[in-house]
Here is the input.
Amino acid sequence: MMSSEATYKFIAFLLVATVVLELAGRRLRLPPATSLIIGGIVLALIPGIPSISLDPDLVMLVFLPPLLMSSAYFTVWSDFKRYIGGITSLALGAVAFTTLAVGIVFHLLVPHFPWAVGFALGAIVSPPDAVAASAILERLQLPSRITTLLEGESLVNDASGLVLLRFAVAAAMTGTFSTVEALGSLAWVSTGGIAAGLLIGLVGLFVIRRLGNSDLVITTTLLLAVISYIAAEAIGSSGVLSTVATGLLLGWHQHGAFSAETRVRAQAFWGILVFLLESLLFVLIGLSLRGVLERIGGLRHGLGELWLPLLAIVLTVILARFVWMTGAGAGQLLLCGNRKRFDPSSAFATTAIMSWAGMRGVVTLTGALSLPATFPGRDIILVTAFAVIIVTVLLQGSTLGSLASLLKIINPEETNSMKDNEAAAWRRMAEAQYRAIRSLAVGEDGAVKHPRLLEQYDHRAKVAASYESDRTTHDGIKSQHFKAVLAAVKAGRTEILKMHRAGEIHDTVMRQLEHDLDLQEMAAENRS
Here is the structure.
């Protein structure tokens, strides 16, 4: 048992390790989750490294609320609503189908355990993980439909997986199962969690609009994630769905409820927080290997007896998702009857990508760890869950980008549509700004009070209209324009730094000018 001081030093060591592993992963072009889990496994096998025992409840409470809040906050709400049917099919149908398939295979290979044990394992390994999905998908340029379905599924599949696990555990421990009770529990877990999250989100927005300070607002958003999770769990509903509902509500209202400064600072804050939490989480998953091996009697002895069930369960998890995706796609085609627009090659590519993207992570590991100590086959379930995580994150996660490139899973129509939308938005925004300036630039006597602003915004409106009508010609002009802006920003920064080092300007003045230049540089880099 490590002391508090030793625990702090070990966490600091892990943070250093995450930076090294992140750099190594980028150099080797590996997804971050892959390099971090491999690094954690290597650390776990080094003599002298403390053995990690993860408390499932603490892991869920510390890591999941902020990570889920961030994912939900930045979710594209319009896409989420548009594909809610597909998200529900994956979050409910795919989870239930995978649970059934894993339960049957497990019982066939390990028949001396009750059926409920296999279904408990199925419920644990069936839901893809929101943390693993976001960590992998953020580096890939997949069509928005695929990304929305995968991220949406991983955000809301907690209810079905945990309810199935809860009743499988009860059936294994007591020998009884009630379908009516299971369905009622699923309904309460889902609706109760969503209702709690929306209520807390509305109260949070009411408070946020009255704070007026960026530091307080950002801190409040973090607290709302934790409060939403704890409150929903306290009433026996889904803390994950509650946090997701709160995050979606805040994300939808951020443009009106948050100031520009708050949005910029919040994006930076959440980016760093998510990086630290995801990195630590994946390293801890790798470090937990030692405890898993100790439970099964060591690597050679334990895995020698379990390799067949392990291999079969991992293959079942992967294939069950592919079967469900194929069947769901065929069913949608039959129901819609839209065969003229059906493209077999595109449908296969989409099915293959979405099937291969079912990464498991923290929810699967904590689900296995949460089983009672007296649960039949607990150690087998734990090592199997760990194997599923390792294979799906390391194998599927690291090859998903290559598979997408091989299948040429791109959507040029979607890309062109986005560019059209952007050009139209810039034109209308520039025209609205020019109208506002024009109404303020001319005084009651007819004299122009702001000639430079009037000229500037008139020029912007004309350029935006010209760009919308002919993007090809203006793309090169735009690129050269923002390169010039970046050069000017660099020259300005060099000059004020020279003045600061010569003692000609105060530190406060230096920071204010540098902040303005930083905003100009960020805007120019985004536009170029």
Observations:
- Residues 412-469 form one domain.
